[in-house]
Amino acid sequence: MSLKDCEYQEERRKLKRRIFCSVLAFIFLVLFVIFLIYVILRPSKPHFVLQDVTVLALNTSSAPGFLTTNVQVTVFSRNPNGRIGVYYENLDIFATYRSQQITLPALLPTTYQGHKDDLMTGMVLLNVKIDGRVKWKVGTWISGSYHIHVNCPAYISFCERKDCIGFGPTVKYQLVKSCTVDV
């Protein structure tokens, strides 16, 4: 091997090292910028609170396996981010009972009512759910859409407690319950 060949191989080795170091430095720079943006903005999910539930009609005495209801809810949302805005898109809100949507008449599967079940304790667990899309806004930049799922559990008694106000067939429950949010 001649001296010229050795110099050529040494130059190739140096070029490969420079390219590798440049790519590595670029990756670290991108990661550092992402980390810096995260530290400055501190993004967090929006908070939802179920403030009250008004049960306009709740019929559990119809045919077995059927539940009919008409519910009005007040949900409060708060964006805790100081520098990031939130766009809510296509939010659907509905109530569920045992994973079945009940804001419209819904057929429930045949079930067994065991000991200490909902009707035995004089209360039912309704879940008020919100499904939709959100976009984040930082300055003039707007992100892509993300799915948001909000679940607000509400234990509804049959107006034997002090937190419900009854007016004929209508019952209003003052709740102020925190909701879980998944983005």
From TrEMBL:
Transmembrane segments: 20-41
Keyword Membrane: yes
Tree of life domain: Eukaryota
InterPro entries recorded: NDR1-like
GO cellular component: membrane
GO biological process: defense response to other organism
Keywords tagged on the record: Membrane, Transmembrane, Transmembrane helix
UniProt-annotated location(s): Membrane
UniProt cross-references to PANTHER family, sorted A to Z: LATE EMBRYOGENESIS ABUNDANT (LEA) HYDROXYPROLINE-RICH GLYCOPROTEIN FAMILY, OS05G0367900 PROTEIN
Protein name: NDR1/HIN1-like protein 1
Species in which this protein is naturally found: Vitis vinifera (Grape)
